[in-house]
Amino acid sequence: MEKQIKRIFILTITASLAMIAAQAYWLFNQYLYSLQQTENELFEKTLTVAEADRKLRSELKNKDLHVITRASAGGEQDSSTASKTNWNFEIYIINRKDATAGMPVSVRYDSLYIDSLYKSGTEIKKYRFEIAPSNRKQDIYDALDRFIINEKCPFYNFPAGFPACGAGTDSGRHTG
Fold this sequence. Notes:
Elements: H1 2-59, E1 65-77, E2 83-95, H2 105-108, H3 111-119, E3 124-131, H4 137-152
Antiparallel strand pairs: 1-2, 2-3
């Protein structure tokens, strides 16, 4: 009889430990699942806020800045005969008030003439990007668009009330 009680006792302890292990496993997986759900929600909210910021800044951009972009793509063949395309962008940022005063309108924003203006010491910012091959051309143009928005309306230019970047007026204020 004592042997049977001992077996029942061991079986009860084993079953209890198995039940506790199953609950611990379930609880740990629930924690991971809820962590993943929270991470996904946070990621979606971050994307929403980033897109709202991008839209707001593109609407509030400094109208005195003009951007000229020259793009070119160069290909090269490698040993696997797969073509690789390097994207080259030259971006000129011109302050219409300062850099182009006194120039004829037909010459002001000619992309061929702009390089000689830049070299002559005129107040023009020039950026050059060389981008390695990418399977997603849209990412390249999206990055270029984000760069231009950031130049025309930098994040740090947002005073209280969000007036138009560089304009100092109430136009373009968003409320709500």
